[in-house]
Amino acid sequence: MGQASCKGLYQSLFDYKTEKYVIAKNKKVGLLYRLLQVSILTYLVVWVFLVKKSYQDTDTSLQSSIITKVKGVIFTNTSELGERLWDVADYVIPPQGENVFFVITNLVVTPNQRQKTCAENESIPDAVCSEDSDCPPGEPVVTGNGVRTGRCLRAENMQRGTCEIFAWCPVETRSRPEKPLLGKAEDFTIYIKNFIRFPKFNFSKTNVLDTKDRSYLRSCRFGPKDPYCPIFRLGSVVSWTGSDFQEIALQGGVIGIQIEWDCDLDKAPSECNPRYYFSRLDRRFPGNSVSSGYNFRFAKYYRDEAGVEFRTLIKAYGIRFDVLVNGRAGKFNIIPTIINVGSGVALMGVGSFFCDLILIYFIKKSHFYRNKKFEEVRSGHPGNGKVTVEQLQNLQTVEA
Question: Disulfide pairs (predicted)?
């Protein structure tokens, strides 16, 4: 038994399998085969070539540069600052015009701070004390403003007080204003200039209209009718994200401005146009959640007539803008075209394979088709009851 199986395995090594074509007169299977062919051809032409443009060589290594400028002035009159005119040098951080910049819309000002000793803010839990031993000297106040001196400052007839600290005094005590100080900043304008280059194709472009009219940038505003005007109204940018300007100006937020370049370089360069998308990037919490908004602190330093340093501390609320650029370029190339055409031809074979499975396994006369599909051929002569290779080469037609 073992020798026979080994002998059969040995002989099968020298077998040769050749394809046999059988025409099956079965309308259902034939219709299914044509539907599969049409579907594969439609996928290849519509999706692969027209939609995905897989006949092109692509470049996604976009090189980009961003220049930003903000313009606008506001006049305010407050008890801390008095009458003051705010221009771009006051409310834009940083001033260099980068792809990430911050526009101040609200602030808390603590003027004339000097380094000395004073009481820590009562709202800080780590600063609460009952006696001097609760304020070990030299220890910083966690989330506080300075270093403990060892004294517990209590008002008369009060059992609890706050630790004395060495810090910039007086410490910040005011809360956020209920209305944004620079609430009219929605009329400010943002100038966003974007240079892009696709190195593989040595193709460069900018989002600014190529014109010699110097007054163009002073009068245009971005919109559907003028997509190559890089001047955006700040209030419009906020509204395009679905947010209310006064709400975001009060507590701050983060807005993303995405510029997308999708360039078909088989067409004219004028057909490569930027598309803009505006979105709110920070998470908005309901109500007056402490997690809402965006703010940070900075200070401006001065010296008095005696040479002693003092400063004005500013807690700034506002809108941070992140300008994001991405894109791709495509151009016809024979290599991806051949690869995708070859893939489509291979998919045609999948249709034949699927129909063969149905024909020889799943229909009522599957055994009949299976016997016609697979046939063992041995070398011999005509008339001896065996099929010759020459006879096998004849195309057979099988009636259903």
Answer: 118-169, 129-152, 135-163, 220-229, 263-272
Residue that is written with structure tokens 């009636």 in the block: 399
Of the residues 301, 330, 359, which one is the last residue of a structural domain?
Answer: 330
Which structural domain range is residue 390 located in? 14-36+347-399
Element (H, E) at 189: strand 189-198
Is 71 known to sit in a ligand binding site? yes
What's the chain's length in residues? Answer: 400
pLDDT recorded at residue 225:
81
Q: Are residues 218 and 75 in the same domain?
A: yes
Could you tell me if 192 and 232 lie in one domain? yes
Residue 69 annotated as part of some ligand binding site: yes
Domain count, the chain: 2
| Average pLDDT, consecutive stretches of 10 residues, N- to C-terminus, the chain (400 residues) | 64 69 72 84 86 88 93 87 88 87 92 93 90 93 92 87 94 85 92 94 92 86 87 94 92 94 91 93 68 86 93 93 94 90 82 76 71 63 47 45
Residues 249 and 157: their CA atoms lie apart, in Å, by 43
297 marked as binding residue: yes
| CA angle in degrees (0–180, nearest 5) for 202-206-211 | 120
pLDDT (0 to 100) of residue 205? 94
Together in a domain, 190 and 277: yes
Which of 330, 358, 379 is the last residue before a domain boundary? 330
Nearest to 201 by CA among 264, 123, 258, 261: 264
What is this structure's pTM? 0.75
70 is in an annotated binding site: yes
Whether cis (ω within 30° of 0) applies to the bond prior to 95 is no
Residue 221 marked in a binding site: no
Is 296 annotated as contributing to ligand binding? yes
**Does residue 315 have a known ligand-binding role?**
yes
How far is 162 from 182, CA to CA, in rounded Å?
34
What's 85's domain CATH number?
2.60.490.10
